[in-house]
C-alpha cells in the first residue's frame, strides 16, 4: 500500500492559478447549465473567484487560507476562520475533481476536528443544500443547525473528554 502524503501550507500569490482552477472546477456543473459561451463562463467564474477571495480576506483578515498538497503538488484549498466565541469556521474546502472521493476531504476535516477539539471549539460550515458533500459532512458528525433557500449551516460540537468534566 502506498502512503499518500498530504500537506497544508499558506496560500501565496504564486498559488493563484491553482486556486482559480479549484474554484472553477467547483462551479463547472453550474456553468454547464447555462447557455453561455466558454468565454462568458470563464469571465463570470473569474469575476466570482476574485469577489469571493476578496470577501473572505476582508471578512476574515486573520483567516488561514491554505493550499492542500499531495506529494508536493497542489490539489485543493482549505480556508478556516476563528469566529467570535471560539467557533472554528470552515470557510471553504475544495479539491480538484481528480482528487475527490479518495478520502482526502475526510482526512482534512478530521485534522480540523483534532485542532478544534484541542481547543474545545465547535466546527461549522455552510454548504449548498444540493451539494453531495452534505452526506460526507453528516457522516463525519456535522448536524444541520439552520437552513435557508440556498445554504445549510452545519455544526460539529467539540469532542468532550471521555472521563467527563472535572469535579
Q: How widely separated are the two ends?
A: 46 Å
Largest sheet: 7 strands, mixed
Spatial order of strands in the largest sheet: 1-2-3-4-5-7-6
The H-and-E topology, N to C, reads as EHHEEEHEHEE
Mean pLDDT: 92
The overall strand count is 7
The value of Rg in angstroms is 17 Å
Structural class: alpha+beta
Question: Would you give an account of this structure?
Answer:
- The protein has four helices and seven strands; from the N terminus they run βααβββαβαββ.
- It has 167 residues and is α+β, with helices and mostly antiparallel strands.
- The longest helix has 22 residues, at 38-59.
- The mean pLDDT is 92.
Short description:
By secondary structure, the chain is an alpha+beta fold. The chain has helices spanning 16-32, 38-59, 104-118, 133-139; strands at 6-10, 64-70, 73-82, 88-95, 123-128, 143-147, 151-156.
How do the helices and strands line up, and which of them pair or pack?
Elements: E1 6-10, H1 16-32, H2 38-59, E2 64-70, E3 73-82, E4 88-95, H3 104-118, E5 123-128, H4 133-139, E6 143-147, E7 151-156
Parallel strand pairs: 4-5
Antiparallel strand pairs: 1-2, 2-3, 3-4, 5-7, 6-7
